[in-house]
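Action item from last meeting closed. Structure (221 res):
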């Protein structure tokens, strides 16, 4: 689901990057953080926006951005959003279509969720003990794969001369300031057996988060 994001929504709830920041000039709280979107400091207590000189800014100056709600299933009891390191390399499953690192999610509104896929494949016993985490991410830094043509445009790399297979160059993708990759349901079927690049192994509509800065807020469901 994509909807405009407001300042109030961004600072509400469990914002993962909030800590001891510069003191708010209005309420004196230090529960503040620097917003790359607003290019200013934001107070999570009273909602005041202020600059580096502690000058308060008009409420609502934060840019409106489009967002997408996604769900991540985690076995961690105390989930925390951590820094994400993306590397090209061999995974244990031998799939060249997945990077080392990343936060795997699926759109909240999808009809083809990872949970549904797990139930259909009897995988992980249908997720007992897994906690769903709802994340709101920004849309303007998402790379969307909806067709085979979208996939074949991605940069590639060969990881070993003895195994000259093309792999997706995820490290190069991150350097382009792409923070998430959205494989749509249509794209998942179009790229399952494509060549030379294939996304066989993504299994369902997915959003792979490559950079935690794309996450505006999150909470447990």
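Sequence:
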């Amino acid at each position: 689901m994509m909807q405009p994001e407001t300042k109030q929504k961004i600072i509400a709830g469990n914002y993962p990057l909030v800590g001891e920041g510069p003191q708010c000039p209005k309420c004196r709280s230090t529960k503040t953080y620097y917003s790359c979107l607003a290019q200013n400091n934001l107070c999570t207590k009273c909602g005041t926006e202020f600059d580096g000189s502690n000058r308060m800014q008009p409420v609502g100056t934060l840019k409106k951005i489009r967002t997408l709600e996604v769900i991540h299933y985690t076995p961690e009891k105390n989930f925390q959003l951590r820094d994400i390191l993306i590397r090209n390399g061999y995974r244990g499953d031998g799939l060249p279509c997945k990077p080392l690192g990343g936060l795997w999610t699926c759109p909240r509104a999808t009809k083809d969720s990872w949970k549904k896929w797990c139930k259909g494949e009897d995988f992980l016993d249908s997720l007992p003990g897994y906690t769903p985490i709802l994340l709101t991410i920004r849309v303007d830094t998402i790379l969307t794969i909806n067709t085979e043509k979208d996939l074949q445009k991605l940069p590639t790399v060969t990881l070993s001369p003895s195994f000259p297979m093309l792999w997706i160059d995820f490290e190069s993708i991150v350097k382009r300031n792409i923070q998430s990759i959205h494989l749509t349901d249509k794209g998942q079927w179009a790229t399952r057996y494509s060549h030379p690049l294939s996304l066989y192994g993504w299994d369902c509509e997915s959003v792979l988060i490559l950079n935690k800065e794309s996450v505006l807020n999150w909470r447990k469901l």
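Note appended to the action item: The radius of gyration is 19 Å.
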